[in-house]
Give the backbone structure.
Amino acid sequence: MNTPAKNTWCPGCGNFGILSALKGALVEVGIEREQVVAVSGIGCHGKISDYVNVNTFHGIHGRVLPLATGIKLANPALAVFGFSGDADCYDEGWDHFCHAVRRNIDVTLIVHNNMILRLTTGQTTATSQTGFRTKSTPFGSAVPPLNPIAHALVSNGSFVARGFAGDPKHLQSLIVQAARHRGFNYIDIFQPCVTFNYLNTFEWFRQRVYKLEEARHDVSDRQKALEKSLEWGDRIPIGVFYKDDRPTFRDNLPQVRGIPLTKLPIEDVDISRVIESMK
Ligand SMILES: Cc1ncc(C[n+]2csc(CCOP(=O)(O)OP(=O)(O)O)c2C)c(N)n1
Ligand code: SF4
């Protein structure tokens, strides 16, 4: 699963927990590496596509989901994983996220949520805590953070989960469940940035997180999941909030439901009439 690339993440970064959980999950699920595509965005998180030995596409900022969607629609045999940051997904890529959830695109999206724009050396993102002082908010962030889990739930998300990079074994089990589920498999991960986020540290999360499965949460109850998604403070839930089976985007698209685009013969295609019609 390793690549020859030199890992340049800071020692102790939460991204290591995600990388280790991902590798463990791919081995546990037993998908051949040729069948896996990892698409990543721009940021520290985006480097993950250099460190795992599968097919990879390091895209542009905020565009993980359009790329992942295209790959999956063209070749549904592939297991497509998207890796995004909180700014990459919840700021620059927010519109793509909203629509991927309701369309139920059959990909797994992993968001490395460190609650800060790291690669640009520390500004607030949509998930930064109110009052958080950064380069862009010297007097503290003035607005409440966005709640992406609640948003995914109210938009009919079919697999909605949250993990913690400080508990890679639990995170691995979430990625395994996501990889085995058909639909938009969304996992937000608390990923402490040990260099720039002095507030949301490993210790901060360790003191607060608890596992939904240990609290006997019913993953088929969207209403209860929504209640859980609003919990924030001394106790913060991680685990699967909600899961169901509903048709994916591809199932509802007659034009791509048949033979995959990558298998269609292209030798005899005549596009001259289309070109003519556009003149
Ligand atoms: C279109 C575009 N806009 C802005 C940037 C500048 N930029 C680079 S990384 C980044 C955000 C990084 O934050 P996040 O997605 O949270 O990832 P992290 O570095 O924290 O993993 C931004 C805004 C860019 N590269 N491209
Ligand atoms: S700056 Fe933060 S997110 Fe980036 S590698 Fe270092 S610890 Fe990780």
About this structure: The pocket of iron/sulfur cluster (ligand 2) is lined by residues 9-10, 13, 15, 44, 114, 118, 193-196 (CB under 6 Å). The mean pLDDT is 96.
